[in-house]
């Protein structure tokens, strides 16, 4: 009798727990009623977040998948990361981190940027002042290498009062720079140390070479530094032809 009574008691407890769980899962008081958003929300507002996230939410306070909710927030333009918490009994709380763009990415037709963590992301480029951002180009998978090279080259160009408007890593692995003065420099392949040595020689001799033609470094239109023992130079207003000026130094 004792065994039978104990068994019945266990069954009763299990049924009670099951009924309680069913009640918790079904009771409307636990349906998600609100989501509190904290953190960085400069680029988004309640309307855009609601439109992008709410349709993807399924379940109530107990059954909602927090990881899927996190991914839904991170799919919103400008959102770099999200942390989602439950707030009993029927609320969610999320903390957002937004992308901080450091450069435009790819061709002008691409609505892409790269953030301070070297991660490529898609967002409306009209949301930023594009005139203040350089443009970086290269395979998406090599965005970190492009950002690193840009940061390495920037002070080298800055030392001669030049800025970098565009840096490109070509499909062949060659580096190409467009300066803020409109000069196109073909740097070729190489490590950061090799680029540094190459540019130091170039900038050290640039003033002397341009002076021979009555010009200053501001007249630089382009240069090809891929030659082993020197470089080819193009200067505005200087040509080796008397007429059409197609072939330049």
Which parts are unreliable, with pLDDT below 50 for 5 consecutive residues or more?
A: 8-19, 241-249
Number of domains: 2
Globally, the shape reads: elongated
Oligomeric state of the chains?
Answer: single chain
- Whole-angstrom Rg: 30 Å
Walkthrough of the structure:
With 249 residues, the protein is an alpha/beta fold. The protein has two domains: 33-98, membrane protein fhac (Ubiquitin-like (UB roll), Roll), CATH 3.10.20.310; 101-235, Rossmann fold. It is 32% helix and 25% strand. It contains five helices and twelve strands. The chain has helices at 2-26, 46-53, 66-74, 143-158, 192-212, and strands spanning 34-39, 79-87, 91-98, 101-105, 112-115, 120-122, 135-137, 164-169, 175-179, 184-188, 220-224, 232-235. It has a nine-stranded mixed sheet, covered by helices on one side. Helix 4 (143-158) packs parallel to helix 5. The protein starts with a helix and ends in a 14-residue tail after the last strand. The relative contact order is 0.07. Mean pLDDT is 88; it is low at 8-19 and 241-249.
Task: Give the topology, please.
Layout (H helix, E strand, L loop, with lengths): L1 H25 L7 E6 L6 H8 L12 H9 L4 E9 L3 E8 L2 E5 L6 E4 L4 E3 L12 E3 L5 H16 L5 E6 L5 E5 L4 E5 L3 H21 L7 E5 L7 E4 L14
Parallel strand pairs: 1-3, 4-7, 7-8, 10-11
Antiparallel strand pairs: 2-3, 4-5, 5-6, 8-9, 9-10, 11-12
Helix pairs in contact: 4-5
């Amino acid at each position: 009798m004792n065994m039978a009574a104990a068994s019945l008691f266990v069954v009763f407890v299990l049924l009670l727990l099951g009924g309680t769980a069913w009640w918790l899962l079904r009771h409307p008081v636990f349906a998600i009623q609100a989501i509190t958003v904290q953190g960085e929300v400069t680029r988004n507002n309640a309307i855009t977040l609601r439109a992008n996230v709410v349709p993807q939410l399924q379940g109530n306070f107990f059954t909602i998948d927090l990881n899927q909710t996190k991914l839904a927030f991170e799919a919103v333009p400008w959102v770099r990361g999200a942390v989602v918490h439950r707030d009993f009994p029927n609320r969610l709380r999320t903390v957002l981190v937004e992308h901080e763009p450091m450069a435009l990415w790819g061709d002008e037709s691409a609505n892409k940027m790269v953030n301070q963590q070297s991660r490529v992301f898609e967002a409306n480029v009209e949301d930023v002042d594009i005139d203040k951002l350089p443009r970086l180009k290269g395979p998406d998978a090599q965005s970190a290498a492009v950002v690193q090279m840009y940061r390495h080259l920037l002070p080298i160009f800055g030392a001669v009062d030049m800025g970098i408007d565009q840096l490109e890593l070509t499909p062949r692995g060659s580096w190409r720079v467009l300066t803020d003065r409109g000069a196109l420099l073909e740097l070729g392949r190489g490590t950061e140390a090799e680029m540094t040595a190459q540019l130091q020689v170039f900038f050290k001799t640039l003033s002397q070479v341009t002076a021979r033609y009555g010009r200053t470094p501001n007249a630089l239109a382009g240069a090809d530094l891929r030659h082993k023992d020197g470089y080819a130079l193009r200067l505005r207003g200087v040509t080796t032809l008397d007429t059409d000026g197609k072939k330049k130094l």
